[in-house]
Amino acid sequence: MKIVDAETMRLLDQRAMQEEGIPEAVLMQRAGHGVADAVERLAMIHQLTDLSILMLAGMGNNGGDVFVAARYLWERDIEVNVRLAGRASSLTGAAEAAYQFAREGEVPIESCPDEVDWTDVPEADILVDGLLGTGFSGEPRGVMKAALAWADALAERLLVVAVDLPSAMAVRADVTVALGLPKKESVAADRVDMTGRVEVVDIGIPERCIEAIGSTGTELITDVDVAPLLLRRKRNSHKGVYGHLHCMGGSPGMSGAMVLAARAGLRGGAGWVSVMVPELIVEVVASRVPEAMVQADEPARKADAMVVGPGMGCSPETQQRVLSLLKEEGAPLVLDADGLAALGEDLEPILQSKRELVMTPHPGEFAGLFGMKVEDLQLDREALAKMAATPLQVVGVLEGARTVVAAPGGRVAVNATGNPGMATAGMGDVLAGLIGGLLAQGLSSFEAACAGVWLHGHAGDLAAGAGAEISLCAGDVIEKLPDAFRAVGPR
């Protein structure tokens, strides 16, 4: 999905209204409906019942979106309280019409035009931030400054949904609901602490209008992009139809990495998974992944995809094994963890490889491969991922907050699912196995990488919602993969 700046989105709105004849009120109704749905999804993920929603509206169209969303939530028998940062008598245009729409539905709305109105500590479960929109610039003052500080203080104990963007990037959101198309600020890696997970609401901008703006560079991976990649399975199929994933790695003391990768490959839909580990840990791994074929040598049947590296260690023997695999012709290969470490800073084996490759480095591994500092890499993750993928002719998956997927042809996509609870050991092993499982089913490397990072992050969000970010483990993400797949398909 295209990522746009605020001005481009404004022009798209104008084109939809002026050239396509879509009334502004209709666009706002769709936006408000989408915000209401996002609030309910967040409550469902976090298993909240008897909801109380505190909704903050500004004087512009973001406030109008909040009024519409409030009425829809109110009509669903959800407790809603709206605070307007200003006087209702000063509202104009679509925002004023949306205010009247909410009042007609008997939604409780309180005007709070003075700084003193923003000093109490209310009870609620979710805070909706619609104080300022993308058109705001400069520094907030007066009542708006007080409202923003008050809202961000509440973000310490409430879940926060931001409408389009966090207001003035001053209120930390758990979810940002992008209206129409995602904005550059909402997906930027250096803004992730403010924007959180990004969901996109279709407000009905005609596709021909969106196509007319041409390429906008980096794309956002969304559920809409992932769903078509996961084709419906035929009733008369068998395990061979869905591919053989072969995982290589593990070593004494690091058997868990192979367990996680193999389990993720199975949950990712591979028909069957074989695992090659050192003889010393065969029984350990086999006992923890009973569905996989675990042995100390290569399987007899040719693999459809491979995952190489998790837990492998960095001995000369493992290094030689990785280099040999890269020289051979064969199945698409996901090179992860110690598989990447085996290269050191020598990229020649990648350049000479006869395989279709997906590389999944975290920032430290990426920096090591290309001889740079991690902090320099983090300054422009998208450009550097693209810089690496094109000359190496690989699909690069630069892990971290806002994981970047870069294809050899220059296509770049960023992922906005996931949460800080996923900053723990084993998450990369799960991602590698999941991408491998998707590759085994016939997805292209870029498709498998994009689908994999979205599903991985969404499963992490579901796992955190069912428990807590602070206690999240890699195995929890694997257990939530079925629910993540259900989010993009009915089966």
Note the main attributes of this structure:
elongated; single chain; 491 residues; 7-stranded parallel β-sheet; UDP-N-acetylmuramoyl-L-alanine:D-glutamate ligase; alpha/beta
CATH-level-4 superfamily name of the largest domain: Ribokinase
Q: Report the end-to-end length measured between terminal Cα atoms.
A: 24 Å
CATH architecture of the largest domain: 3-Layer(aba) Sandwich
Number of strands: 17
Q: What is the beta-strand fraction?
A: 5-15%
Shape: elongated
Helicity range:
40-55%
Please state the CA-atom Rg, rounded to the nearest Å.
24 Å
Helix tally equals 20
- What structural class results from the helix and strand content? alpha/beta
Poorly predicted parts? none
In CATH terms, what is the fold-level topology of the largest domain? UDP-N-acetylmuramoyl-L-alanine:D-glutamate ligase
- Largest sheet properties: 10 strands, mixed
- How many structural domains can be distinguished in the coordinates? 2
* Strand arrangement across the biggest beta sheet: 8-17-16-15-14-13-12-9-10-11
- Overall mean pLDDT: 96
Overall CATH class of the largest domain: Alpha Beta
